[in-house]
Q: What sequence folds into this?
């Protein structure tokens, strides 16, 4: 059973990386499928292995593989979206911990925003050479993405409900 989870954690790390290839660029970030695959990893693999899959994904990028929307390497974590990358681990963990699929995804998304928004607020000063107000951070870091993210969470919850009995 452990081998199955190791393989599936690797698969979801790769799927999350592939999810960055499908993107719609925005001024500071992009619409991608990273959070979709992160939520699925948590729902299907549980909290521990879902979080492991996202940690593997981050390690792949940290060593320089271009798996993030901004490429790869440590510098990706210094951008305004670096906190959202780190937020993938608690997002997957929470999605795997909460028993109901859609609430699990939405609570995981909340954890992602809780990690990403403060980081974005601080990093925009250095990265964009100008500070953002809290309202700008919330608007450009969350409100623009929220409808798309909620749609992805609904789709992930529905899809995992169908896949889970066949996968594990």
A:
């Amino acid at each position: 059973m452990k081998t199955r989870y190791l393989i599936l954690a690797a698969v979801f790390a790769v799927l999350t990386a592939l999810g960055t290839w499908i993107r719609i660029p925005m001024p500071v970030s992009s619409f991608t499928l990273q959070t979709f695959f992160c939520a699925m990893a948590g729902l299907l693999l549980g909290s521990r292995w879902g979080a492991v899959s996202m940690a593997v994904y981050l390690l792949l990028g940290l060593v320089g593989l271009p798996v993030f929307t901004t490429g790869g390497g440590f510098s990706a974590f210094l951008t305004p979206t670096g906190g959202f990358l780190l937020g993938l681990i608690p997002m997957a963990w929470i999605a795997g911990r909460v028993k109901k699929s859609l609430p699990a995804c939405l609570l995981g998304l909340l954890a992602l925003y809780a990690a990403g928004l403060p980081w974005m607020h601080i990093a925009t000063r250095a990265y964009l050479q100008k500070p953002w107000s809290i309202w700008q951070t919330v608007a450009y870091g969350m409100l623009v993405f929220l409808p798309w993210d909620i749609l992805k969470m609904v789709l992930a919850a529905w899809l995992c409900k169908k896949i889970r009995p066949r996968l594990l």
Notes: The chain has a mean pLDDT of 93. The radius of gyration is 15 Å. The helical segments are 2-19, 34-62, 82-97, 101-127, 134-143, 146-167.
